[in-house]
Amino acid sequence: MVILPNYVSNKARIVIKAADNIFLTTGAYPSVISPATKPSFFMQSLDNQREACLPTSLSFEFETEALGGLTEPIQFEVVSGLPSGANAVFLNNSVFGGETNTLTLDFPYTTGSDSYEIVVRSFVPGIDTLERKLYVTLKGTDLNEVQPVSSVDGLTGGAQIQNYNWMKKGMLTNMRCNWLPTLLFRQIR
Question: Do 56 and 109 touch, CB atoms closer than 8 A?
Answer without folding.
Answer: no
